[in-house]
Amino acid sequence: MAYQTRYRSFTITDYLPNGVKWLLIVNVALFVLYDVFPSLAEHMLLLSLVPIMVIRHFAIWQLVTYMFLHGGISHILFNMLALWMFGAVLERDWGTRFFLKYYFLCGIGAGLCDVALNAIMGNWGTHTIGASGAIYGLLMAFGVLYPNQTVLFSFIFPMKAKYMVMIVGAIAFLGALHVNSGVSDIAHLGGMAFGYAYLRGRFLKINLGHWQREYNAWKIRRAKKRFQVYLRKHGSDRDTFVN
Question: Which of 128, 137, 151, 241 is the most buried (most CB within 10 A)?
């Protein structure tokens, strides 16, 4: 179904592109499944992020699967709303492939930070679940790419995206200073840090590529000028017609 506005045409997929759509479906489906069948909760522990399982038993799949589990309705509601609000915009601009790559990079990076910190503190048996690390990475990307875009902080207060990112980052940092708060703020910070580092690296790569192309073009222009000078100097020694 397509709609026509005064400025441009758009379809329903503009609001819900494929990457965001399937992430929403999988997250919600798993949440409903575990809620309807409580007996499956035991298997949930195998998919949650547990430092001792990742480090000592090489359960590296948990760095991905933990992102699809949520502990309550408010938990999944906030994450999925943020995924839709910010992820849809990013996916439309980036494309599905790059969007999903960035999303999982932030989520896995957040998981690595969570595992590392808990292992250092000796909390080997903690269980971490939720897509918040990846979501915070999306918030970071939105703030970097659209700093002056007005957004609703906590879905209520309008403010520029760059200020929203500063606030949520500060809240996560302060929360990380409190041990056993019940929220993995280090994962939130990790998702933002990995996202920012990746974007900065990509921008640097783009800039380096631009300057490399400019340098190559300059070398070609210089070679053409030298060749033209050579022809002018030796033109009298050459035949008028050449094959």
Answer: 137
